[in-house]
Each structure stands twice: as structure tokens, then as C-alpha cells.
Design brief:
It is a single chain. This protein is α/β, with parallel strands linked by helices. The protein has one domain: Spore Coat Polysaccharide Biosynthesis Protein SpsA, Chain A, CATH 3.90.550. It is built from 9 helices and 11 strands. It has a 7-stranded mixed sheet, with helices on both faces. Helix 1 links the parallel strand 2 and strand 3. The longest helix has 22 residues. The protein is globular.
Length: 257
């Protein structure tokens, strides 16, 4: 019998001992008793495992910890975490968040309110608007906007921020989107959009997705992504674009624009 929860949140962790905001998790669990947080310890070599164990001991009914001895990368850690939750828990919605909670748990829950028919996939967007607090380092913002523009053109859909680490899905959709391993360890978010288009076709996929401006997002300054990845990023984008367009070409019923 699957344990009943109304929401599961997967959080990949790789050497997060110094930036994991444990107190924020403690407060959230008291506010949201029917939400399950699944931490995926992705081969951490610091004290991440110990911290996660302590959190789980204090909230055994709301915390699940999945640990891997070796680092498999963020994409695979998220994918395995979602598979784990979908197999173990009975829930309507599932999400993933970054461990530093740049997007807060509370804001993630607000986004969940948008997961109503026909929306099956919604995601946060770091758009600087009047009344919002989006704190990003200038060089990261400039680079991020350039990359986001390229990705939007590649996908051929009007999306402002594909890379924000707060995405939510209906459980049924997550089972399909996370079935296969991803091509890229870090740009798997882009693949999710391609998979939506492959699954429904462009015309029917767009009404099922919703981009929602965040009210608050804070750049912690720390990142597991090495600076050298900037050079490999373009190669990953090339392989992603080529792979999914070849798949679409082999299936003429799919319209990818």
C-alpha cells in the first residue's frame, strides 16, 4: 500500500552541508504535514548525509532520503528521486527544487495552485518585475539571459526562463517525462520541454504548460556547476537539439514547429 501525501518535492543534494537551510525545512514541515520531501544524496563526500539523517529523524513521516555512493549528476538524481516517490507514495503532484532553497518551499507550494486542468507542468521564472525580489549576480544574469534566448529559439516556444530550479508536474505527467535518462547532467530542464512537445505535439503541449514569475528568488552564490562547463554547455545544447529533432523526424505525427 502506498503512503498518502498530497505533494512530493524532490531535492538533489551534492555536497550541500554548508548551504542546506535545515531550519527552513523544519518550519515548513510544521506548516505542511501532508507534503513529503525526498532528499537525494548524490554521492556527497561532506557531511550532507549526516545532516539529512538528522532532518529525517526529526520528521520521519515527511522526509525520505535516497542515497547513492557515487555522484550521478543532478539530472539523474532528480529522475531517480521522482521515480522513487512515484513508486512509493500516493500523491497528485510532484516537484523538484534546488537544495539551497533559492526558490522557497512556500513559493513552490503557491505554484502548485496552478496545476489545474489543463495545466500539467508549471515552473518558476526569475523575471524582475515591480513588487518582486529577484537577486542574481549581474554576470550570471547576463549569461543566463543570453543562454535562455538561445534555448527559447531552439525550442521555438516563448519561454523566458527554462533553467529555474523550481518545476512542478502532475504525477501522471512526471511518470512519462522522467521515464528515460537525460542526455545532459545540467540542461535536462531543456529536455523536459522537448519531451512535452514529443509527447503531445507543439499545439497541444503549450496549453498544458505555464510559466509563473516568482515573487522572490535569491542567488546564494554557490553552485555545483563548474565554470568550465560553459564550454561544454553549447555541445550539450547541440546534442539535445539534434537528438529530439531526429526523433520527431522519425515520427511525422509529432509537430515540433
Amino acid at each position: 500500500m502506498k503512503l498518502e501525501k498530497n505533494m512530493c518535492i524532490v531535492i538533489p543534494c551534492y555536497n550541500e552541508g554548508q548551504r542546506l537551510p535545515a531550519e527552513e525545512f523544519h518550519s515548513f514541515f510544521q506548516e505542511s504535514p501532508l507534503v513529503l520531501v525526498c532528499f537525494v544524496n548524490d554521492g556527497s563526500v561532506d557531511d550532507t548525509a549526516k545532516i539529512l539523517e538528522e532532518i529525517q529523524l526529526q520528521h520521519p513521516d515527511q522526509v525520505d532520503v535516497v542515497s547513492y555512493p557515487n555522484n550521478v549528476g543532478k539530472a539523474e538524481a532528480v529522475r531517480r528521486g521522482i521515480h522513487h516517490c512515484n513508486g512509493k507514495y500516493d500523491h497528485a503532484h510532484i516537484a523538484y527544487l534546488d537544495a539551497d532553497l533559492a526558490t522557497s518551499l512556500q513559493e513552490c507550494m503557491k505554484l502548485r495552485e496552478h496545476l489545474k486542468s489543463p495545466i500539467e507542468f508549471c515552473f518558476g521564472s526569475r523575471i524582475r518585475l515591480l513588487g518582486t525580489f529577484i537577486k542574481r549576480k549581474k554576470r550570471r544574469w547576463i549569461l543566463g539571459r543570453f543562454i535562455a534566448t538561445i534555448i527559447s529559439q531552439m525550442l521555438r516556444i516563448n519561454v523566458y526562463d527554462t533553467q529555474c530550479g523550481c518545476k512542478l508536474f502532475s504525477k501522471a505527467l512526471s511518470i512519462q517525462l522522467f521515464q528515460e535518462p537525460f542526455i545532459s547532467k545540467w540542461l535536462f530542464d531543456v529536455e523536459l520541454f522537448f519531451r512535452m512537445i514529443m509527447l503531445y505535439g507543439m499545439e497541444h503541449a503549450i496549453p498544458k504548460m505555464l510559466e509563473i514569475p516568482l515573487t522572490r528568488w535569491i542567488d546564494t552564490g554557490a553552485s555545483s556547476v563548474k565554470l568550465s562547463y560553459i564550454f561544454k554547455l553549447w555541445l550539450d545544447l547541440y546534442h539535445i537539439n539534434k537528438t529530439y529533432r531526429v526523433r520527431a523526424f522519425k515520427n511525422p505525427s509529432i509537430k515540433v514547429a
